[in-house]
Amino acid sequence: WRTSAKLAVRASTSGVRIGLFVPKTHDVVRIHGCAAHHASINAALEAISTACAAAKIHGYDEASGKGDLRYVKLEVQRSTGLVQVTLVWNASSEEQAGRPLRKLVSALTEQEMWHSIWANFNAADKHTSRILAFEKEAAWREGLAVVELGLGPTLRWKALAPGSDVQDYGGVHSDCLGARRIIAGPTLDADDRFISQANLCAFERIVAAVRRFVPSGSAVVELYGGVGTIGLHLADTVGRPGMARSG
Hints:
With 247 residues, the protein is α+β, with helices and mostly antiparallel strands. It has helices at 39-55, 94-108, 200-213, 229-232; strands at residues 4-10, 17-21, 28-30, 69-77, 82-89, 114-121, 140-142, 148-150, 156-158, 180-181, 187-188.
């Protein structure tokens, strides 16, 4: 199953339409009940749609630049089936998002399916194609309350929803979003600036196959390795490990 999904949210007569863009357009087709998604993602999408209707949330309208919710990012914690959701909000700050965001979070937390709830504030215009904003002023928030985590010069995190436990995030995110234990080996932390695999179960099998094909003691170079997901899971089979970083 795909345990990760980034889906567009656009305006509709019912308030929001959540799904994928039709090829070569920014028209959204609903993707509820997708057979490729983990069952928890499908359940989460239904819950988000219901909560948006209850809280009277409007999907983003590219033509006018108005609306509340632009995208949702969903990650399943495979050990529990709980879902971490990031609400990409059409605002530059929590203050600008205001009461609609608080109402949606309140509606969502009536369900017990959430690992945690986050907001990313992205007020970019329609000519900016990125889903998530990473500027300091755009900020990240988890929930609507208390704990801030310092993650360097560009990101700020704030704990705000039930189930939030700062220790659980390992400095970035939880197991279901960032820290991936693929096979016997290191747990890796990666925030949303890094590309991660949508189907971790299949990716685990790929990593295991790569290990089988690499003779013990080999010299291995991993190019475009990101946070080193594959290379670090070969570290115990090769010679002296090393890392070169550029950029």
